[in-house]
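Morning F.,

Quick status update on the modeling queue. The single chain you submitted on Monday has been processed. Sequence for confirmation:
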Amino acid sequence: MILDWFDAGDAVLFAQEVVRELNILFPPSDQKGKAIPAQTYQKKFDGLVIRIRTFSSNHKLNIYKKAKLLNTIKWEMRDAGHEELIIDEFISFIAPILG
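Structure tokens below.
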């Protein structure tokens, strides 16, 4: 039972998926691609937010798992080359969604 409390493997894998999608929507400054139309961009971002909400409601995320998920997103985004401001804004945006 106690080991399950620390099993954040699903959260880490999900965080990595989220960052892969973010890299497409918000390419790091050194990897700018062609512009995505605003309407398409908004739909894809809304879909990502819905996926985060769904993951949060389908998985019991204790404080350790939430921290692991957010920390993984932060470091994966940093490793991809995103600016600190974007990272902090995204983390601040999704933290309340996780509950």
